[in-house]
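To whoever is on call:

I kicked off a structure prediction for a single chain this morning and the downstream step that reads the tokens threw a length-mismatch warning. I double-checked the sequence; it's 243 residues and nothing unusual in it as far as I can see. Pasting both halves so you can look.
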Amino acid sequence: MDSSGSDSDFNLRVMYAELTGLHDRPVRFPLPADPRKGLIGYTDEITGEMVCSAYLQGVFPWFDEERNEPALWWSPDPRFVLPVEKLYVGSRLERFIKHTPYTYSLDRDFPAVINGCASVKRSGQHGTWIGKKMRDIYCTLAEKGIAHSVEAWDNGILAGGLYGVLIGSVFFGESMFTLRNNSAKSAFVLFARAFAAAGGRLIDSQVYTDNMARYGACNISRAAFLRLEREYLPCRLKCPLCL
């Protein structure tokens, strides 16, 4: 990775400084060597500052700590995203939300949410990609107001939730988990609507999932995604985000 920068990186440096409060140069990520795979490269270490640099350039970390992989950095083509105006909610879920038994919160217990995402068993997966390094980094980003969690509670017990990173008017969704029926689904829909009402424009889901496809997410080219980032990342939300 290149941290030297150039005059053409001015906007990146400005956004990085605003996001992190730091004035050192952000790590500059290259384009993937193999566009079909989207793998940029790897680093032996990973820090919150590197993660922030990555999001600003359409890159994200995804690796398996349990297998002692280095930090792998990705920028897939196509990119799977949900423009907020395309949000689709089925009638059954709409009825559930109208009479939901849960209460919902934003940033009430980020560590519990990311631990829930790391712990839940997923079909076809062995273990989790959310290892201790990732949990520590994102918890620190949450303390700085960069990462956010959405919680669904059932009589004071965490029933499900999701977390991600908010920069400008883009929310980079990372993971969600469900312990009780429709908890994460309803939390996501309520968050997406609140995000749109506050001036949010795009929810990034990174790669295709059946779950996000149900809400109207679609594939776009990497080039299109990077154009949207350049437009949306500098745009602050119109009002505070609240459920």
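Update from on-call: the warning came from a stale cache, not from the record. Cleared it. Sanity check on the structure: Helices lie at 10-20, 48-55, 91-98, 110-119, 132-143, 183-197, 210-213, 222-232.
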